[in-house]
Model the fold of this input.
Amino acid sequence: MKKLLCILALAVVGCGREWTAASPGEQGARALLVCLNMPTEEAEPAAQAVEVWNHALGGWRGLTPSVGGRSDCDVTVDVVDTKETWCGHTSELGGNHVVLNSTCLKDTYAIVMHELGHVFGAQHAPNTLMAPTLSGMYSWAGSGTLCPDKTTIAQVAAYQRISLTTLSWCY
Ligand SMILES: [Zn+2]
Done:
């Protein structure tokens, strides 16, 4: 529960990590609906990941998580049963369809954090949220919480052709 509160608090005040801006919250940020197609219990950490990205992108896009089937989604997160070894997959760089492997649901927060990085245009980079393996991501985060770092956010800014100063990152 403490970890949960910590993650929730991250979006607002930080939790062991600092953010470049407490809440950019510029007017006019276009809203994106992120649909989490999974049972409510499993959706909770995924929704937390969406909230943390919302904090990072708040000057550019407002992200709202929604649990359950809707048809007006901007980004969709599905869970599949597969024997393949990957835990998360995004349709393409900048794509809007994320798939989680049901065998990895204990790591839903970390996987959704990482895959949303791909959705917004970040590629793999060592020692960041975009480390290519879960162990690499956890080792980068250490005892802190996984959050969008400056390297990741700079990739997003370059991909989306927006000013880095519009965005926030943790450090
Ligand atoms: Zn990846």
User: Anything to note?
Assistant: The helical segments are 2-10, 40-57, 108-119, 134-141, 150-160. The radius of gyration is 15 Å. Residues 109 and 169 are 17 Å apart (CA to CA).
